[in-house]
Amino acid sequence: MLWIVIILFSLLCLLPCWITLYKAPTVTNAQQSALRVYQSQLKELKNYLEHGLILKTEYDQAQLEIQRRLLKSDPSSATTAPLQSVLSTSGFVAIALGLLCIPMAAMGLYIMNGVPALPAAPLAPRMAEQEEMNKKIVPYIEQLKAKLTTLSVMNPKRVEGYLLLGKIEASRGNLPAAVVAWKEALNQQYDPNLAAQIAELQTQIEGKVSTDSVNLFRKALEAAPQDAPWRALAEQRITQYEKTHP
């Protein structure tokens, strides 16, 4: 039943395409020939005017007459007889099959790369599972913290350890702890990208741009290259701070 609903909904989404294809204006061979003749006459008339063979008033009158004939030969005119459409039957069938292939291809990709038989997981069990994983990881976090306190400030592994600790805390949603860990790494080895990341994370936690965050942004901008991807965001945050702290 679900697949039938998906197919019907896909066809419904393509309904504007079907309507446009069905109601496409038909242009006949005779009309195309007439349009080409009138366009050729306009070009020839303009050429006569440029070479001084006719006067401007004569050019305007002749142009007006040709334009009148062009409008009269418009396919939408009520006097146009319904002749054979340029769009052949085979072309119409090809376009229709192409439109049908769109939902079929989408369903095929979903079946190949998705998991159609997997039911949707309710939110409550997923939250409980995440909480259980957070509890299991706490002892390892404490062990990592204890290990980092034993490392010398000059030890490069201390920076790597605090970067890892920050990533772990951020992945489990403990953003304040992630900021603390990353600041320890930043104090030992300055990195403008990390400084900007800390400043933005602090702004999200506090809901505003603090003095500490804006100082981090400014120092990061001075040390970062001109093509830093976060440069525009940092400048925007600094502008927000200056508006509230004139």
UniProtKB/TrEMBL annotation:
NCBIfam families: cytochro_ccmI
Alphabetized UniProt keyword annotations: Cytochrome c-type biogenesis, Membrane, Transmembrane, Transmembrane helix
Keyword Cytoplasm assigned: no
Full protein name: Cytochrome c-type biogenesis protein ccmI
Gene3D superfamilies with a match to the protein in the record: Tetratricopeptide repeat domain
Transmembrane segments: 92-112
Species assigned in the record: Commensalibacter papalotli
Top-level taxon of origin: Bacteria
GO biological process, one term: cytochrome complex assembly
